[in-house]
Amino acid sequence: MVTFVIRRLLYLIPVLIATSLIIFTFVTVSGDPLTQVRVIPNLSQETVENIIEQNHLDRPLLVQYGYWVKEAVTDKFGTTLLGDEPIWPDLKRVLGNTLQLIVLAQILGVAFAIGVGVLSAVKQYSVFDYASTTLSFIGFSTPVFWFALILQIIFTNIYLNYDVRIFYTAQLSSPNPDNFWIDRLQHLALPVITLTVLSVAQFSRYMRASMLEVINSDYVRTARAKGLHERGVIMRHAFRNALIPLVTVVALDFGALFGGAFATETVFALDGMGLYFLRALGERDVYPLMAWLMVASLMVVLFNLIADIIYGWLDPRIRYD
Amino acid sequence: MTEATPRRPGERSEEQQQNPLVESDRATVKEATPASLATPAEPAELAAVYEQGLQIEARSQWQLARRRFFRHKLAMASIVVLALIFGAAIFAEQITQFDYAEQDFEHSSIGPTFTHGHYFGTDQIGRDYFTRVVYGIRTSARVAFLVAFLSTLIGTMVGAVSGYFGGWVDNLLMRLTDLVLTLPVLAVLLVASALLGQGSPYRVAIILALVFWTSLARIVRGTFLSLREKEYVEAAKAIGAKDFRIMFRHMLPNALGPIVVNATLVVAIAILVEAVLSFLGFGVQPPTPALGTLIAKGQGLVAQWWLVTFPGLTIVLICLCINFIGDGLRDALDPTQRRTSA
Questions:
Q1: For a tag on chain B, would you pick the N or C end, based on fewer CB atoms within 10 A?
Q2: By mean pLDDT, which of A21-25, A219-223, B335-339 is the weakest?
Q3: B106 φ/ψ angles, rounded to the nearest 5 degrees
Q4: Could you tell me how many CB contacts below 8 A there are between chain A and chain B?
Q5: Which chain A positions have a beta carbon within 8 Å of B303's beta carbon?
Q6: Could you report the predicted ipTM of this complex, rounded to two decimals?
Q7: What is the pLDDT of residue B43?
Q8: Using an 8 Å Cβ cutoff, are B100 and B258 in contact?
Q9: Cα separation of A178 and B215, whole Å?
Q10: What is the 3-state secondary structure (H, E, C) of A185-219?
Q11: What is the pLDDT of residue B160?
């Protein structure tokens, strides 16, 4: 087990090096980070050259990459390319915000998906089964950002026309809230609903499929044959084993969401990882982009690892060697 | 609705139990008596059989698949709807009354109405949104089909080479695939579009294809790994067929099922991802109307809800149809499936 974790973490190293090199090259080649500096009037050529020299922008790509690695390792990703704003405090803040969003959404999503999946498997070909299947097909086919916008339109219109504030439709908190957490939940509600609905659509299909497979297996028949009541068969025997495939899907999705909630965060102007990335990309500022990428990739790999560990816990037949 | 339910082996047998009259369509014997089947037919006898109007109609794997697909009601309905939508996009000039850039200041920001022919309403400068959506479908569909074609091509090539040759080639290609799979997809797409996209639909399509081939590569590799051990491959090798002939003449047709299904589903995913990219401002750029950019235009305009609603509903409808078709194809191309009626 320990060796397995260590091996997986070691595998992370080449992945991170490769991704960082690819992205560094991409971003560096993609545009001049000094575009916004150059348009400042009365800026002498000397100053520009000074900036270039200070930030090693005149050096070959690999050397620039080397400077980045040095700063990242010794100084918590260092500062933004231009200016001296430290990256880590900002990144830590947006990571925390995104974490609040996706933890809530995933917990709700998994809870609902398990309920829907189990029910539609147990009552296969029932009206409920068809309805949930159709709805999840629609869920697959819906663009996240569009769904978010529709929610935003509905709730903003409710507020504007009836003066009822149910949920806030932008930002993370009000200027002076009475109760910080209630206010925060009112702000997070719509983004969370957006992500939840879409993950329920996805996860419930997996849950249904794996539940069906388990229900038709021999040991479930045995459980019924020995006279166990249906509830016990489903909950004790079928349910636990049906969870195994879902764990992988959820963990993978969880990791991916760190770098994938762009659309939701943009629509609701949520100060999270997605907006941070887009801002840095707009400024062609390679250092924060790299820092973001390292954190996001780390999360993906970390959650893959967690998936594997839970997998082994749920299914003792799996051995790590 | 039955068609929408992904079928698993367990379910199938259950269904057959419920319905003992499941038609066996491997070979349908028309008006044939068992006796005429049991005896090996001599040429003369065969002729006699034909004269009596008895014949055995054999069907190839593809004919079977086609029959199964045509009986998949939801998939057929989806094809009809999709044909209508894409047909409208192809004949956009003939169908729409306006030009997509035409500004009608007298009717700016009006909601969906039949009186002026603005079925989906107009934006702030009076451009007809129905027209823009129809042209948007054209752009988005172009991107999506190009992505599906290119990613299928790359994925099949990589998967086939990897699965057939094995060894270090396989190792190298699969590590590359793993690498692409570990990347935060949307972030990479955003960076790549910012660098190479320049708002052109074709460039965006190529960028998407360069990320989307991985899942297919894995599927094809898996299929090729098992096909490699088949006798007909050995036979082809024995008569001295070249590697690439074996791969693409003999093995590929047997791996076509999952490839076709995957290509179909990629079209839907590509439409969704292209819409996100365009919405965030890194995909197709104005003035070319794409469904994502049309939605982005309506962002923040909560009073003009139609600007967001209609392009989005169009995306949902297109993707829903494609997903249903993919589901139908999956059922139809599954060679273990013998039923024709769904």
A1: N
A2: B335-339
A3: -70, -25
A4: 148
A5: 157
A6: 0.83
A7: 64
A8: no
A9: 49
A10: HHHHHHHHHHHHHHHHHHHHHHHHHHHHHHHCCHH
A11: 92
